[in-house]
């Protein structure tokens, strides 16, 4: 199963860098969808992000029924979200499934992965 979580996270990085946006579930009163970490005792919480709106929609049930799928631009995510998440020890859950399972990743690890992928894509475009 862990192998599938890794594939989902790799797909997230690939898609998000190509489309320049990602998605989360947001509620005006509750904020962004998040939950407790499964694997990381150091994490204060895990904020959930998806590379496709349809993947986020699968979790619009029970606890998050009133949440709306919101797009986040990749530049804003890189500049405004990840440093703050790292300071607060909030991890990112990437392309989690409807059972709330997936890879939990430190914000700085995610930031580095996204920047590396962006650089790789820009090299391919100029080649």
Main sheet record: 4 strands, mixed
> Helical element count?
4
Distance between the termini: 37 Å
Give the tally of β-strands: 7
CATH topology: Trna Endonuclease, Chain: A, domain 1
What is the H-and-E element order?
HEEEEHEHEEH
Spatial strand arrangement across the major sheet: 3-4-6-7
Mean pLDDT: 94
Q: Name the beta content range.
A: 15-25%
pLDDT < 50 runs, ≥5 residues: none
What's the gyration radius in Å? 14 Å
Would you tell me the structural class of the helices and strands? Answer: alpha+beta
What would CATH call the architecture? 3-Layer(aba) Sandwich
Describe the structure.
It is a single chain. The mean pLDDT is 94. The chain has helices at residues 2-19, 53-57, 74-87, 107-126, and strands at residues 21-27, 31-32, 34-35, 45-49, 68-73, 90-94, 103-105. It is of the alpha+beta class. The chain has one domain (2-117): Uncharacterised protein PF11572, DUF3234 (Trna Endonuclease, Chain: A, domain 1), CATH 3.40.1350.90. The longest helix has 20 residues, at 107-126. Helices cover 45% and strands 24% of the residues. The strands form 2 sheets. The protein has a 4-stranded mixed sheet. A 3-stranded antiparallel sheet has the order 2-1-5. It is built from 4 helices and 7 strands; from the N terminus they run αββββαβαββα.
List the helices and strands and how they pair.
Elements: H1 2-19, E1 21-27, E2 31-32, E3 34-35, E4 45-49, H2 53-57, E5 68-73, H3 74-87, E6 90-94, E7 103-105, H4 107-126
């Amino acid at each position: 199963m862990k192998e599938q979580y890794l594939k989902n996270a790799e797909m997230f990085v690939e898609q998000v860098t190509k489309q320049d946006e990602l998605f989360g579930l947001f509620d005006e009163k509750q904020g962004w969808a998040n939950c407790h970490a499964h694997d990381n005792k150091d994490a204060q919480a895990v904020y959930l992000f998806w590379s496709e709106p349809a993947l986020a929609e699968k979790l619009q049930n029970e606890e998050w029924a009133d949440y709306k799928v919101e797009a986040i631009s990749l530049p804003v995510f890189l500049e405004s979200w990840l440093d703050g998440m790292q300071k607060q020890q909030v991890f990112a859950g990437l392309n989690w499934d409807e059972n709330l399972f997936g890879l939990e990743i430190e914000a700085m690890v995610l930031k580095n992965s996204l920047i590396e992928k962006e650089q790789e894509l820009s090299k391919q475009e100029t080649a």
